[in-house]
Amino acid sequence: MKAMVFHGPGQRAWEDVPDAALVEPTDAVVRVTAVTICGTDLHILKGDVPEVTPGRVLGHEAVGVVEQVGAAVTGIKPGDRVLVSCISGCGRCAYCRTGSYGQCRGGGGWVLGHLVDGTHAEYVRVPFADLSTHLLPDGVADADAVMLSDILPTAYEVGVRNGRVEPGQTVVVVGAGPIGLAAIETAKLYSPGRIVAVDLAAARLEAAKQFGADVVVDAGDDPEAVVAELTGGLGADVAIEAVGVPETFELCARLVRPGGRVANVGVHGRPATLHLEDLWIRNVTITTGLVDTVSTPDLLRMVTTGRLDASRFATHHFDLSDMDTAYDVFSRAGETGALKVVLTR
């Protein structure tokens, strides 16, 4: 089968690899029909995730049709159309038993495209298939469903829910890429008083407006002053970091008011400075997190009933065989205007 393989920082190739196959009785093999590329895949290619070793098939988001299931799999069967979650949960360890699948100690967590071969391939082995897949209703298109593999539950759980967004509050989202836009989309579920989006790219700020941001601010135009003016000098109730570089994390810490919350979602490859000399007296809460995907069934129901619109995230569509071109377009989002690229066959 063909797959996108990581060969070290800055090196990737769409090439022949051995066919995906069952290894454990809890596995399924899924024929991939749609995938998308994540910012985390780009972090891997930059060398920011050293646990990913050369030879690994990339990708952790997919929709597909079940080809085979292991003897212990009871919830899905060959022919079923499923969403493949970015997180795998063993269902037995102390973390899984509380729904913290991202911290699984039984061989799961974020493993696809990280510790085992991932979804950017014609077929994928899905560990712990009963907990790591979701049956899809006929009315949800592949290109919409694949947004539920990662960006929507990640933004919702790690950004909006960790940030404890409440009605009437001022929420600032720093970074208007796919995760930031998903944070805007899901923050609206809680009726905040105002959503402010901060980014450097004009195209992404325009997208933030379309997704529901009330105010957009170029990161070079003193967002601290803008947020202070909007809030009577207090600052934001919640600042969601959706980039993953030191500058944006430190900006979020400056934007938040006393008693506010900073919810870090971005994947960081470099150290960021935590200015405790300023923050210790301000009662600021800072959260980090890897998505658990425990919210995926709820989000899927909202997409199915039209409460959430997953269709507008995809700006570029490719055939699965055009994986290398899709990576190039997504990696140059500032030039191409790409939000999410979707590859189908």
From TrEMBL:
InterPro entries assigned to the protein according to its UniProt record, in alphabetical order? ADH-like_C, ADH-like_N, ADH_Zn_CS, ER, GroES-like_sf, NAD(P)-bd_dom_sf
Q: Which family does it belong to?
A: Belongs to the zinc-containing alcohol dehydrogenase family.
Coiled coil regions, renumbered to chain: none
* Needed co-factor(s): Zn(2+)
The record's keywords, sorted A to Z, are: Metal-binding, Oxidoreductase, Zinc
Tree of life domain: Bacteria
One annotated GO molecular function is: zinc ion binding
Name a Pfam family for this protein.
ADH_zinc_N
**Under which name does UniProt file this protein?**
Alcohol dehydrogenase
Q: Where is the Enoyl reductase (ER) domain?
A: 8-343
- Which organism was this protein described from? Saccharothrix variisporea
